[in-house]
UniProtKB/TrEMBL annotation:
This is UPF0056 membrane protein. PANTHER family: UPF0056 MEMBRANE PROTEIN YHCE. It is found in: Cell membrane. It comes from Candidatus Nitrosotalea okcheonensis. Belongs to the UPF0056 (MarC) family. It is a multi-pass membrane protein.
Length: 198
């Protein structure tokens, strides 16, 4: 019984961690926060993790009902997320940071695009819905908590990287990573369109 529980928990954790893929988000975080102080960057990461937690738990419990009520497909999230990321990449390439009009975004950056669609993207939201239906409430909740802890630890590793690069180096890297973000965006849109017309 315990062995089965641990086995299912392990599967749920590994699958969710692979889908969220926090390591792949490090370049995007560096791109979005390259000109910020450490305190502000930490604040954004905190907002990011809290937002991801809320999204994952909400979708685990009532995700299916939300989507069916509004007639929204998970692939619509994918396409919309791709468009959003592409706009972010354009801002990074032209301004060196993420701005909205004349306002530079601060803690809000932890909500969009870091929390959604990068970490708690369509894949992760769909997965927690399936996990709830497959493994039940306990394993789903535990797997989300464990993955959030691992994700936070990985994202905090950007600080040593910033110390190594310095502000000038970080600004250069920001421009380079903007291209990577654009590639992520295009792939989101392509995958979403493929699934819509599949």
């Amino acid at each position: 019984m315990v062995q089965d529980f641990l086995g299912d928990l392990g599967k749920a954790v590994i699958t969710l961690l692979v889908v969220i893929d926090p390591i792949a988000s490090i370049p995007i975080i560096m791109g979005l926060t390259g000109k910020m102080e450490r305190k502000q960057r930490t604040s954004i990461l905190n907002v990011t993790i809290i937002t991801v937690a809320i999204l994952l738990f909400v979708f685990a419990f009532i995700g299916s009902s939300i989507l069916s009520t509004f007639g929204i497909s998970i692939f619509s999230f994918m396409i919309a997320g791709g468009v959003l990321l592409f706009l972010v990449s354009i801002q990074l390439l032209t301004h060196g940071d993420w701005t909205f009009g004349n306002q530079t975004l601060h803690d809000e950056s932890g909500v969009v695009p870091l929390a959604f669609p990068l970490l708690a993207g369509p894949g992760a939201l769909t997965l927690v819905i399936l996990s709830f239906e497959t493994y039940g409430i306990l394993i789903t909740v535990l797997s989300i908590i464990i993955v959030l802890g691992i994700t936070y630890a990985i994202l905090r590793s950007v600080d040593p990287i910033y110390k190594l690069l310095g502000k000038r180096g970080s600004l250069i890297i920001t421009r380079i990573f903007a291209i990577i973000i654009a590639a992520f965006a295009v792939q989101f849109v392509i995958d979403g369109i493929k699934q819509v017309f599949h």
